Amino acid sequence: MLYPSVDKLKTQINSKYSLVALASKRARELYEKEEEMLGEYTSAKPVGKALEEIAAGVLKQEQQDESAIYEDEI
Predict the structure, then answer these.
(1) For 16-72, how does the pLDDT look when each residue is reduced to its tens digit (9 = 90+)?
(2) CA atoms within 13 A on the CB side of 5
(3) CA 11 to chain centre
C-alpha cells in the first residue's frame, strides 16, 4: 500500500503532473541538503518524505505569476 495515498495527495494538489513535479523537486532538495520539514517520517527515501510533506500540508505548490517570464521558458 502506498503511503500517503494518491487520494490524500490529490486533496492537496489537484493535478497529478503538478504533484509529481513538486515531489521530485523537493526530493532532490532533501537528497542534497537533508533539511527536513517534518519531525518524523514513515518513509526513509527522499521521494516518500516529499510526498509525506505534501500530504501533511507543509509543502504547497506556489502560484506562478502569469505575466512573469521564468528562466526555463527562455
Answers:
(1) 888 888 889 989 999 998 788 788 888 889 999 988 988 888 777 766 556 666 666
(2) 4
(3) 13
**pLDDT for residue 1:** 46
Domain that holds residue 30: 6-57
What's the domain count of the chain? 1
Query: What sign has the CA pseudo-torsion 17, 23, 29, 32?
Result: negative
The residue to which cell 503532473 is assigned: 17
Q: Is 10 left (phi over 0), alpha (psi -120 to 50) or beta?
A: alpha
Q: What is the pLDDT, as a whole number, of residue 28?
A: 92
Asked if the structure places residue 67 within a domain, the reply is no
Do residues 41 and 30 make contact, with C-beta atoms less than 8 angstroms apart?
Answer: no
